[in-house]
Structures are given as structure tokens and as C-alpha cells.
Amino acid sequence: MRIALVSEHANPLATLGGEDAGGQNVHVAHLAAGLARRGHDVVVHTRRDSDDQPDQVRTDAGYLVDHVPAGPPVPVPKDELPPFLDELAAGLARRWARDPVDLVHAHFWMSGVASTAAVRQLAAPVPVLQTFHALGVVKRRHQGEDDTSPPERIACEKRLLREVDHVIATCSDEVRELRALGLRSGGSSVIPCGVDVARCRPGAGADTNGGPEGNGEADGRVPPRRRQHRVLCIGRLVPRKGFETVLRALPQLPDTELLVVGGPPGQAVEGDPEARRLRCLAESLGVADRVRLLGGIAGAAVPAYLAGSDVLVTGAWYEPFGIVPVEAMACGVPVVATDVGGHRDTVVPGVTGELVPPHDVDATARAVRGLLADPGRRHAYGAAGRRRAEELYDWSTIVERTELVYRAAVGAADRKQEVRS
Hints:
Blueprint: E1 2-6, H1 23-37, E2 41-47, E3 56-58, E4 64-68, H2 85-98, E5 103-107, H3 109-120, E6 128-131, H4 136-143, H5 153-163, E7 166-169, H6 172-181, E8 188-190, E9 229-234, H7 243-249, E10 256-265, H8 273-285, E11 291-296, H9 302-307, E12 311-314, H10 323-330, E13 335-338, H11 343-346, E14 353-356, H12 361-372, H13 375-393, H14 395-420
Parallel strand pairs: 1-2, 1-5, 2-4, 5-6, 6-7, 7-8, 9-10, 9-12, 10-11, 12-13, 13-14
Antiparallel strand pairs: 3-4
Helix pairs in contact: 1-14, 2-3, 3-5, 7-8, 7-12, 10-13
């Protein structure tokens, strides 16, 4: 099949940890690579955000990244992209008219808006599948007045449920939310995000531990320990990721250091507003000497940081899926995660980790402290997490399941066309 993946703000080539660079980038990159390995012709269309970007990049993984002009060729926060969606749709329509595709898989709601608009301009119908990665109603529920989503987002997401051929949700909690928005019966499949279990494995990057100190060592060299225990947090450096909750739990975790990975890479993290806020909080709590904000790192370095930690903690207020906890499980590291969204599918309490209420400092501290005090339980959770990652979340399995949904969608579209003709 000739497959178009549309990911308007999440370029699979981007450095992770920035404001709009995280799990979606990883998901699209691995999905594209896996489909290419299975013999499909895959193009990822994403918005051009720099004059230095070539029109197209053929990746070593075998898929093509196509930078589509839409708005100024500069970084634009994703919530400010809607005015450029018509231009993006026109660019996609021109490409698909010139080089027809068998199927379009849109990632995030704005990609869906542009993709469905583009397909309407084509002479022959093309099935469009949608993965939302996050939902406006959930974001508004948890962020309230701090939600910066465009006002039309929720209405567009509801409309997409009527317009797209099929929805691929990443967790069961998302399906429940989609049904409340009007998802038709049988209109979705649940396929989780995946992990590279060969790269994410117990002991990954062990030979790089103890390397020189620094912010966000992109080559995978993990800073040496300063305390007996190490707790790790990874994610975009934004309040909703819940780093503050973990930081406030640190005074209850003796002889434990906290590493936070995310945000601008290298020394640039020092100027990040959220990083400055967290540093001030650490100082006020008297734990500044046990907290290191390392900035963003290359995706290839993530397994070394995970495997070199005792516990991964994610304190996100809400999480549509959450790839990092699954990566931690693949590395044999126990997880303490908030009882929200995709965490409810991926983390098995008492088996691979523990679930705690979001914003609950004491519950977070108790869960982490219990694991740090019990090496045997940490080992058992880690081994169970590795097995679960191998059985359910390996990218080869995810790609095969996605391919089956694609073939069903293309077959259904062909049957509809035959009826019309």
C-alpha cells in the first residue's frame, strides 16, 4: 500500500522534549518505520517550520518525510496552527492528486481537519483514519482556563468522528471519551502505542553510565549518581506533566535524587520558564542539591537513562497514552504513574508498578518509598514489566495490528466505490 501519515506539528525527525515534541513524534516515527519494513510505501507529511528544512528527507528507516509549506517556515505553537490548515490541506491535495495514495492516517485533530479537507478535493475517494493522541474535552476538563486549545477544537473533533472512515484509539479510556462525543458503534479500534523492545531493554546503555556530567547528554552518557537511589521523570517540560508533584514528594524520599529529562536541550533548559519554576520550588523545599533538570535528550539516549534508574515516576494530570512508562517497563524498571488515561491500560498495580491519584504528593511518596525500600519487589515488577512490554507493546505487534485495520479500511472503501459505480 501507498500510505500517507499526516502529523502536522509532530515531525518524526524532531528532537524530543520540546513544548510540542513528545510521544506523538515517537509514535509516528516508529509506525512509519515499521510499515516501511513491511514493504509499504510510506510518506509522513508534516508542516515546514524552518527555511533550512529540505523539501523531503528519505530516512534510514525507509520512509519519506515531506515538509509541507503551511504558514511561515518558523516554529509555531501547535495551538496557533489552525489559520494555516487550509494551506496545509491544499498542499496535501496537490501531492495526493499527483501521487495517489491508498490510505491516509491523520495524527492529532488538526491533521484530521487538513486530511479530510484534502481528500474532498480529490477525484477519487481515499479512506481517512484518525488517531487523536489527545482530546480537547479531556484537556479542558483538567486545565480549565489554562487550556490554550483553539476554541473550535472540540467541535472539529466531533465533526471528525462523522467524517473519517475509522478511528484508531490508543487506549480504552479514550474510546469511552469518544463515545460521549458521538463515536459510532464499530467505528474504532484500540491499538496502543508501541516501544522498541530491542532498544529498550534491561541494562540498556550500562556501559555509558558514569560518564561526564552535563545537561541532556545526547550520546546516552548518564550522569553518575549522587545518592543511593535515583528517581527519573521524562516528558515535555509543562505543568500538566506533574513534575511538581514528584518534586514535592522528594523530601519524603531520603537519600534519593530526582532526574528530570525534558524541555530545551543542553544549557538552554536554564532559560525555560517551567525549569526556573521547578528550580525555585526545589530550593524552597530544601532539595535543590538532589534535583537535576537535564533538558531534552535524543530519543536514542532514553533507554540508558531509564535502565540507570530505580523507579520511573510520571505525575501527569492526564495522559492520553504515555509511552515513557511502557519504555520503562521494557527496560525492566518499575513505574509509579498517575491513575489516568492510558496508564490504566499499561501499568498493572501490584505487578508492574503502582497507580496513584494525580496531584497526590503523599500517595506518590508512599508508592516510590515502598519500592525504593524493597529491591526484591522492584526486581519482580521490572521483570513483569519487561514481559508485558514484549507481549503487548513491541512495535512489530503494533504495526501488524495497524496494517490489518488499514487493509480493512481500504477494502471497505473499495466496496463502497463498487456500489456507487
